[in-house]
Structure formats: structure tokens, C-alpha cells
Amino acid sequence: MMRYGFLGLGIMGSRMAARLLRAGFDVTVWNRDAGKCLPLVELGARQGASPKEVAAAVDIAFAMVAGPQASLDLCFGIDGVLAGIEPGNGYVDMSTVDPATSRRIAEAVAAKGARFLEAPVSGTKQPAADGTLVILAAGDRDLYDRSLPAFEQMGRLSLHLGEVGQGAKMKLVVNLVLGTMMEVLGEALALGERCGLAGDQILQVLAEGAMANPMFRVKGPMVLAGDTTTSFPLKHMEKDLRLTLQLGRELDQGLPVAEAVHAVFVKALAEGYGDRDIAAVVRSL
Fold first, then answer.
1. Above 90 in pLDDT, residue 270?
2. Confidence (pLDDT) at 1
3. Overall pTM surpassing 0.70 (yes/no)
4. Residue among 171, 219, 235, 239 flagged as catalytic
């Protein structure tokens, strides 16, 4: 039986690892806060003492952490993945990072004789729990094929996008659209309120037209209710938009709307909404 590891058990990782365990997979888990391992141990997981120990004990280790620095620390740190991974085994980083970070990790993993795949996901808390994420993989094709049974438990669609870096780029492009949609929905509802329009009727009109989409159906009522229960932390969207603007500068591609939207998320972050859901961006309008 293939042995899997899962490193990082936050909002997303905990639910993704649980999907693997409920499907009967052999999974060893690790998290910086060891207490977050306990619910998964109750589902049948083994608990590793460090990323090094997990990487040494499994055939494929998956990671889902907060961003570039966390990914680098997980890989290169003392008792990190590089210290334990064996030649021929696989490391799949599903975190949202910039392409350069992915390439740096890929080169280090390859130097150990192991295989690397980046595989950021499109989707938030509920899709992670339901196994309906979209997985945006790039890198070692053989490792992608070997990871498919796990991907099929975690997502409804998996794509192999080419060389390392392409998955990261696709995720940033997707989240540029997501962040912009969230901010403009907030603007529209705020303007409508100032005009004396009923928010639920604005959402009804949007739902019946060409702009109907699942995100508006979920986030619109949250905005009206003032509900910022976290599904996708606002601080992570600010990070993703920041990385998107960095990518645009590297490619000499102007992103004026992204710059404006990022500024609103920066303001919301400064006002203390970083750990709340992205719907909290409305509080800054």
C-alpha cells in the first residue's frame, strides 16, 4: 500500500488529509501545532514528530502551508523535508506560492534524487471537506500520475500544467479573479445600501443574470449578515494578490485593477481583519 504524508493541518490541510483517511489511505500527519494532529489520529493517521520524520516514512508527502516563507521553512528548515526525503520518493507542495519559490524547492528536492510536484488548489474550506477542489499541478509527470489516487479524493478536477512554476502562475491568475470579484461585490452592496436598495434584492438580480456565480451566492449573504466566519482568510488573499502583482512586474504586464483591489485588502489587513474571511474586505469600504 502506498504510504502518504500530510504536512500542514490548517483550514485546508486538515480537511484534505481527512479525505485521504476516510478513503482508507495510509497517512502520517504533522503540524507545527501538534494538537491539530489529534482529530486525524482519531481517524486512523499516524503522527510524525517532524517533517523530516514524515518525509522519511512515506512514499509521497503532501504539504499545505500558508505561503512562500512557510513552504521554504518546511522544506529547508532543521528537521525539514529535505533532511528526510529518500531518493525516488515524492514531495507535493499544495501551498500557494510564487513560481520562484516552487522552482527553488524543486531543484533542492531533485538534488536529493527525489521527485517534486507543485499542486496549489482552487477552492476553500467546504470544497476541501467535500473533495471538490481543482488541483493545479506542475512538475514531475510520473509523480503526478502516482499522486492521482490521492488527488481524486481531494478534488473533482486535476490538471498537469507543465513545468514547475506553471501551477503557481495558474493559481495566482485564478485568485486575481477571485479577489477582484469579492471586492467588487462588496463595493456594489455598499453602494446599493447608500442608494436605499435592499441587499437581498441586489443579490437576487445578480443571481438571475449573466453574472450569476457560486461565489456571489455564498459570499453575498455573508456580507449582508456581517458574517466573516473564516473559509478563506483575508490575509492569504492579500498575500496572493501581492504575489500576483510581483508576477506582473516580472513580466512587464500592467495590472491596474489588481493594484487597486490589493490596496483595499491591505487596508482591511491593517484594520485587523486578516484572520477573518475574505468577505471582511467589505468592512474597509
1. yes
2. 87
3. yes
4. 171
